[in-house]
Amino acid sequence: MKRRFMRALITSVVVSSLIITPLMAAPAVDELEQEKQAAQNEVNSLQSQLTELMSKMNQLEEDLIAKGTEIAEAEEDLSEAEELEQQQYEEMKLRIKFMYEAGDTVGMVGALVESENFTELVNKAEYVQSVHNYDREQLEKYAQTRQEIADLKEKLEEEQKNMQSLQTEYEAQEDELGAMITSKQAEVANLDEQIKEAAEAAAREAEARRQAEEEARRQAEEAAAAAAAANNSTVGGNAGAESSSSGGNSNSGGSSNSGGSSSSSGSGGSYGSAGYNPNTGNIIVDAAYTQLGVPYVWGGTSPGVGLDCSGLTQYCYRKAGISIPRTSGAQLASGTIVSDPQPGDICWTPGHVAIYIGGGKMIEAQQTGVPVCISNVRATHYVRY
Fold first, then answer.
1. Helix axes 309-319, 278-290, angle to 10 degrees
2. d(CA 156, CA 64)
3. Which one of 188, 267, 289, 384 is CB 3.0 to 4.6 Å from 274, fit for a cystine?
4. 167-183, pLDDT tens digit by residue?
5. Helix axes of 25-100 and 118-235: crossing angle, nearest 10 degrees
6. How far apart are CA 46 and CA 153, in angstroms?
7. Which contacts of 186-192 are long-range, i.e. CB under 8 A and separated by 24 or more positions?
8. Among candidates 84, 101, 94, which has minimal Cα distance to 139?
9. What separation in angstroms does the CA of 149 have from each of 140, 142, 155, 379?
10. What stretch of H or E contains 17?
11. Which residues, including other chains, have CB under 8 Å from residue 165's CB and lie 6 or more apart?
12. In angstroms, what CA-CA distances link 16 with 13, 236, 237, 373, 374?
């Protein structure tokens, strides 16, 4: 009998130890969650930096367009000043020829000689001198104006050059931030997978522990019942009671749905839905083809003369009877992003737009020194109106 009680006691101790043993997987999940949150915070910070950079790039694009317009105006003013200077020079030559060459009319020298008195002679001589002075003053004035405009144009072009360098710097920063965001997002996704696996492992361990505890408890109950029955048989001598007491049942078939939960950090962007009109698309593409070879001009909106990237897209859409904003950022914001690009849609990347013509090609006003041309598609988004 003592042996049976000892066996029951040992079983009870084992059961107690199993019940109070802590789950070791939980801290691992918590640690992974902290790592994931830290990585997500970095993603959010980088995204904020990218948003701020995009805002600067949009503003810079507007400034470049305005600067290009100023340069174009300065070029017109310079051309006009040069024409006026040349015109004044030609008129001066004609007056000199009239005054000093004898022809069908009496020359100026003859007029001076034929003066009737000294006063008339002085007046005529002063007139000749004043004509010379006027010509000189006019020429000097036009030359000065021309030089001032030329200096202004040079200054504007230098400012434009600096702004273009800043644009290149911004684009490099955008690429770097984009790569960092992609890397961190991959890290977050990997941590998500680790958290899922750790949670599932913890759930499996918990279920195994629960089943072990149930089994140990059942065995302890059976041992205790058997010991009690043996004791009753020895003291009171009722075998039927012993048989009855040892028939107890334990329902240990309960199940636990403690499978690990998965966490997803990715937020898929949804594209808009916009109908496509082939006729409109063809008009836009045809308009783009007519501008092939046109010089790239910052701020340019003149078809056949000079265009920048958003000036080209704006013109092409205007030919199709569609009014769109002036800058690339505004063109993205006002249109609908689509996932199925069709001819006539806008190919958008930060600070740049082009017309999609199909077959993985687009027509773009690319950059200074490169006329409007056909290129392979470079697009972050496709925009439809």
1. 130
2. 10
3. 384
4. 888 888 888 888 888 88
5. 170
6. 39
7. 187/39, 188/36, 188/39, 188/40, 188/43, 188/265, 189/265, 189/266, 191/32, 191/35, 191/36, 191/39, 192/36, 192/262, 192/263, 192/264, 192/265
8. 84
9. 14, 11, 10, 40
10. helix 2-20
11. none
12. 5, 32, 33, 81, 78
Residue where the block lists tokens 């027509």: 363
What tokens appear for 35 in the block?
Answer: 């790592």
Q: 171: which 2 tokens?
A: 């684009």
Q: Is the distance from CB of 258 to CB of 207 less than 8 angstroms?
A: yes
Q: Would you call 125 helix, strand, or coil by DSSP?
A: helix
202, containing H or E segment: helix 118-235
**Start-to-end CA span in the chain (Å):** 92
Q: At what angle do helices 25-100 and 309-319 cross, to 10 degrees?
A: 80
C-alpha 148 chain-centroid distance: 40
Residue 109 backbone dihedrals phi, psi, to 5 degrees: -65, -40
Q: Could you read off the pLDDT of 187-245 as tens digits, one per residue?
A: 888 887 888 788 777 778 888 888 888 888 888 888 888 877 777 665 555 444 444 44
Read off the DSSP letter of residue 364.
E
- 226-259 burial, b at 16+ Cβ within 10 Å, e below that, comes to bbbbeeeeeeeeeeeebeeeeeeeeeeeeeeeee
Max mean pLDDT among 4-13, 83-92, 217-226, 354-363 falls in 354-363
